[in-house]
Every structure is written in structure tokens, then in C-alpha cells.
Design goal:
The chain has a single domain, classed as TIM Barrel (Alpha-Beta Barrel). By secondary structure, it is α/β, with parallel strands linked by helices. The two termini are 16 Å apart. Strand 5, helix 6 and strand 6 form a beta-alpha-beta unit. The chain is globular and about 45 Å long. The protein has an eight-stranded parallel β-barrel, surrounded by seven helices.
Length: 252
């Protein structure tokens, strides 16, 4: 029997930047946090620069890409709304010959508190396609932030996406409730539909040490989970190294 491939863990360091930005001392260091996570075994680093720069800033995006040059076997994922500042950030990295392996297109509005829904098809297809083509021309894989909608997966592939990232907040909100198993089945079915359409599958939003193991077991073909808020909160108590290792244990 072929063993199941291990799901990669990408650490979103936005919340480290958010804490740093409350003062003007440069601490905690976003690059130091990323380095410690990589040293502990994280497969990648994720950032979500927003137009208001309330957490990750443009210079952070560059400094982290520079750090990633020293980790050629790991991946750098830059996510955000491609109709805002995302493509400028990505084009700047490419112009500097710095690594960026994946862009994740997220349909959030300017100033939005946090991402809370995926792209809609066919409504968003025409305007997404040229931006997906642009990312591909830069040599970058494209993932679309999507709700767990089986019917939408072929359309996401048809518009040119390489992967989808399942928006997992509904599953996380149902954890520990009678709706938990139904939500888990819903996400497993959506992931299978994505695989059947020829897409890779990522996932993220409100995944934590409690709900992640069941999700990773149930969702077949899961390439990557991107986790920020819960992981950084755990790191405040456990430290980055122990926390990353704990999340990696959830993915076994």
C-alpha cells in the first residue's frame, strides 16, 4: 500500500506583523519568526499583504522572500486580492529575482477584518482569467480561495487555476457541534471534486491543533494547510519550535 503523502504546513506570519505594528520597535521580528518556523520543519511561509498595511508591509514581503532564498526546498506563498495590491507585490519580487512559488487569490475587500468567503463562478471567471494568466507568465502557481462547493471546482480549473484553497471556517465553527461530521463530509467531497477536476487542494482558516487532525485524515489529496492565527497564538505559550512540531504531528 502506497503511504499517503504528507500534507505541507505553511505558516502565515501576518499576526506577528500585526503585533509588531502596535509599536515602533521592530519587535517581534517577522523574519525571525519565519526563520524559526522553517528551522522547526514548516514547508513554507505565507503572507497576506493588504492595501492598508495593517500587518504585513511591502518591505516584509521582500525581506521574507530574501530569507526564502536560503531555503530552496521550501515555498513562499503570497496571498491577497489580485485586484488590490497583490500583483504589484508579486511582480516586484519577480523583478528582484526573488522566490515566490504560489499566489493565492482571495476575494476580500479593502479593510476587511478577515477573509470570509471564496470566489464565485461563473460570476468571477472573466475577470480572474487574465490575472491567472499574468501569474502563470511570471512562472507562479495560482491557488483560488474557494468555498466547499463541489459544483464550482471544474469552473475553477477551467479558468486556469492550479489549486484551490478551501475556506475552512465553516468546518472550524462546527467543530464540537452536531454539525461537525456533516461539515467534514462536505469538505472531503469538495476536495475530491477539485482533485477530479485536476486541481491541487490547499486549505486554511481557523484550523488549529484540535480540529486539524480529523480534517487531514478525512480530506484526501490535501497538499497544504496554511495556518496563522491559531499557530501564532499557540507559539505565544509554547514557542515557535514546539508549536510547529505540534502542528506537523497533526498532519501525520
Amino acid at each position: 500500500m502506497t503511504p499517503k503523502p504528507r500534507t505541507n504546513l505553511s505558516v502565515n506570519v501576518n499576526k506577528v506583523a500585526h503585533l509588531r505594528n502596535t509599536r515602533h520597535l521592530g519587535i517581534p521580528s517577522v523574519t525571525r519568526a519565519a526563520l524559526l518556523c522553517l528551522q522547526a520543519g514548516a514547508a513554507g511561509i505565507t503572507v497576506h499583504p493588504r492595501p492598508d498595511a495593517r500587518h504585513i508591509r511591502a518591505d516584509d514581503v521582500v525581506e521574507l522572500a530574501t530569507l526564502m532564498q536560503d531555503w530552496p526546498d521550501r515555498e513562499y506563498n503570497v496571498e491577497g486580492n489580485p485586484f488590490h495590491n497583490l500583483m504589484d507585490c508579486v511582480a516586484d519580487l519577480v523583478a528582484r529575482k526573488l522566490p515566490v512559488h504560489q499566489v493565492t487569490f482571495v476575494p476580500d475587500s479593502e479593510g476587511q477584518f478577515t477573509s470570509d468567503h471564496g470566489w464565485s463562478f461563473p460570476q468571477d471567471a472573466a475577470r480572474l482569467k487574465p490575472l491567472i494568466d499574468q501569474a502563470h507568465a511570471l512562472g507562479i502557481r495560482v491557488s483560488l480561495f474557494m468555498d466547499a462547493d463541489v459544483a464550482a471546482m471544474p469552473a475553477a480549473r477551467a479558468v486556469g487555476a492550479d489549486r484551490i484553497e478551501l475556506y475552512t471556517e465553516p468546518y472550524a465553527a462546527a467543530w464540537g457541534t452536531p454539525d461537525q461530521d456533516a461539515q467534514l463530509r462536505r469538505f472531503a467531497q469538495a476536495a475530491q471534486a477539485a482533485l477530479d477536476a485536476g486541481l491541487g487542494v490547499n486549505a486554511g482558516h481557523d484550523l488549529n491543533r484540535d480540529n486539524l487532525p480529523a480534517f487531514a485524515r478525512a480530506v484526501q489529496g490535501l497538499d497544504e494547510v496554511s495556518i496563522g492565527h491559531a499557530l501564532i497564538a499557540d507559539a505565544l505559550e509554547l514557542g515557535y519550535t514546539a508549536t510547529v512540531k505540534a502542528y506537523l504531528d497533526c498532519l501525520v
